[in-house]
Amino acid sequence: MQMLYDSESFVVVHMSPDAVETSGIVLNDGAEPRPQLVRHGFEIVDKRSGKEVYLDGSWAEMFQEQIRAWQRDTPTQEEVEDALDRYAGLAQHPVVVH
Fold first, then answer.
1. Given a cut of 70, is residue 48 above it in pLDDT?
2. Strands 41-46 and 93-94
3. Strand partners, 42
4. Within 13 A of 73's CA, how many CA atoms are on the CB side?
5. Helical H runs in 1-56?
6. For residue 25, what pLDDT band results from cuts at 50, 70 and 90?
7. Number of domains composing the chain
8. CA 87/CA 98 separation, integer angstroms
9. What pLDDT does 93 receive?
């Protein structure tokens, strides 16, 4: 897990895939489980609304492209916040502290 962005309005965290150790685990039918495809994702927290959205799969790939564009073009904070605000429109889950 790596925090990529933190402002008064948003937090963006990159969740990296972790290797899952499956050796020694036996399923009910006696077989060992096959390795699972573990994908990375991004959590975007809208501090203003108290909601978060988790992007994985094709959404994560699109967001990764956005990050690469930001690295090339060095946007203003306002441009970053505007882009994050569009993704925050997908947020449906309230932030819960564990």
1. yes
2. unpaired
3. 14, 55
4. 11
5. none
6. low
7. 1
8. 24
9. 75
Full-model pTM? 0.73
Q: Is residue 29 part of a domain?
A: no
Long-range contacts of 14-21 (CB under 8 A, 24+ apart): 14/40, 14/41, 14/42, 15/40, 15/41, 15/42, 15/43, 15/54, 16/40
- The yes-or-no verdict on residue 22 having pLDDT over 90 is no
Q: Which domain holds residue 82?
A: 2-18+39-94
For residue 54, being part of any structural domain is answered with: yes
Token pair of 36 as six digits: 């699972």
Distances (CA, A) of 21 to 2, 17, 24, 32: 22, 12, 9, 11
Nearest to 9 by CA among 64, 83, 96, 92: 83
